[in-house]
């Protein structure tokens, strides 16, 4: 409504959020190396393309003449009511795109919109500063009338669940130090990423000399950790120590380690949830359940890790079918529009994570850009619901709201 009314007064939006145009305009704003890092895909980029194509095959079946005056986009996630099933995906090294604010920028906007924020282990700000920014955004949300409050004036808890994404070190003391710091700063869901022991073979970014991209950019999660500093030294001059040895260390963990992690997080937090990010088969989803996890993220890391692996959306239905409601199922890789969110929810996702789009927004003037991208996505989802004749995302949007069409049709 804000966008339409502004348009009627001749005020154009600050930049286009149409996916292709957004990427092109962000490219003009960022340095070549920074853009190559965000846009990076594994190999020839087939998986990233497959992520988008998978959405194309699912078509929405609208319901005519339904009363959709009051829509309900809210969902309940790990005990919190949130205004829409949209989460800020963990993205590291944000100072590359916005040197001053880094991760505090998206964390603040997530707080303002009442949406969950996932803090990355590879972040360029500290766990504590990002939590404070997220709190600040939530406080702004409570005071201001100008922020997005949900289509029918509904809004969730002032504080959405705050996730800490873990790249698990092989040094348990370092891992435990991070977990304790995260809990002390109010992160109540742990998201353990299992598909990125090392960065993928991102040909274009490698050719541009920007991948992996860590020398000199600061990784404040590691460089601010007292246990890490005591054992491995101050990182001021050598960030590769943290990233190489403790983030992308090239050595996979095994399932038994998940049991250990779940036990530790529950012990520290008094039983808060653990989610595995990077699950792409029913087999692994059931393993996550067996090893005590509370949820998974069906994700291929935005097509950045293994070229030629399955699109996330293509395996979502079989994973949902296997899990049978026993765990929370989150989804990412390729979400760009409101219709995409609708489709992922229809196929059984409890909520979706959005990655590159808000980074591209951040390239357009920091807070303002992130806010524009995420509010536009929320509006797009709301309009999709209205026009398609669906009142409640939670109750009405199901697999029967979609039909699959083969290639070429
Ligand atoms: C990521 N992603 C990611 N994932 C994670 O668990 N920890 C991290 O630190 C990062 N860092 C990161 C940096 C950049 C630049 C990108 C683009 C992605 C993956 C991210 O959380 C998510 O899975 C994908 O971005 C989702 O795909 P889309 O929405 O970008 O298509």
UniProtKB/TrEMBL annotation:
It comes from the Eukaryota. The keyword Oxidoreductase applies. FMN binds at residues 90-92, 120, 165, 193, 277, 299, 332-336, 355-356. Keywords: Flavoprotein, FMN, Oxidoreductase. The lineage of its organism: Eukaryota, Fungi, Dikarya, Basidiomycota, Agaricomycotina. Belongs to the FMN-dependent alpha-hydroxy acid dehydrogenase family. This is FMN hydroxy acid dehydrogenase domain-containing protein. Glyoxylate binds at residues 37, 167, 301, 304.
């Amino acid at each position: 409504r804000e966008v339409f009314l502004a348009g009627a007064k001749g005020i154009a939006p600050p930049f286009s959020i149409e996916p292709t145009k957004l990427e092109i305009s962000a490219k003009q704003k960022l340095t070549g190396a920074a853009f190559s890092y965000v846009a990076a895909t594994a190999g020839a980029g087939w998986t990233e393309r497959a992520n988008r194509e998978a959405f194309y095959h699912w078509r929405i079946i609208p319901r005519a003449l339904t009363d959709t005056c009051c829509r309900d986009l809210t969902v309940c996630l790990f005990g919190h009511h949130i205004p829409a099933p949209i989460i800020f995906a963990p993205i590291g090294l944000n100072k590359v795109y916005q040197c001053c604010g880094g991760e505090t920028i998206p964390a603040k906007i997530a707080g303002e919109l009442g949406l969950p924020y996932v803090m990355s282990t590879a972040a360029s700000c500290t766990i504590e500063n990002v939590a404070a920014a997220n709190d600040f955004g939530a406080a702004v949300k409570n005071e201001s009338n100008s922020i997005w409050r949900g289509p029918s004036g509904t809004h969730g808890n002032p504080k959405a669940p705050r996730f800490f994404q873990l790249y698990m070190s092989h040094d348990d003391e370092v891992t435990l130090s991070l977990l304790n710091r995260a809990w002390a700063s109010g992160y109540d869901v742990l998201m353990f990423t299992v598909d990125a022991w090392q960065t993928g073979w991102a040909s274009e970014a490698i050719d541009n000399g920007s991948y992996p991209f860590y020398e000199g950019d600061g990784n404040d999660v590691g460089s601010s950790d007292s246990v890490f500093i005591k054992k491995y030294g101050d990182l001021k001059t050598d960030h590769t120590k943290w990233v190489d040895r403790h983030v992308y260390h090239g050595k996979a963990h095994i399932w038994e380690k998940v049991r250990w992690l779940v036990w530790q997080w529950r012990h520290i937090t008094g039983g808060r949830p653990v989610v595995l990010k990077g699950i792409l088969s029913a087999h692994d989803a059931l393993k996550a359940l067996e090893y005590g996890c509370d949820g998974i993220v069906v994700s291929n890391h935005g097509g950045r890790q293994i070229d030629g692996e399955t699109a996330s959306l293509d395996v979502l239905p079989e994973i949902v079918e296997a899990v049978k409601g026993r765990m929370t199922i989150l989804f990412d890789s390729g979400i760009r529009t409101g219709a995409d969110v609708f489709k992922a929810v229809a196929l059984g996702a409890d909520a979706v994570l959005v990655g590159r789009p808000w980074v591209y927004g951040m390239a357009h003037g920091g807070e303002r850009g992130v806010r524009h991208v995420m509010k536009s996505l929320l509006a797009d989802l709301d309009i999709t619901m209205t026009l398609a004749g669906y009142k409640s995302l939670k109750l009405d949007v199901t697999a029967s709201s979609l039909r699959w069409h083969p290639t070429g049709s």
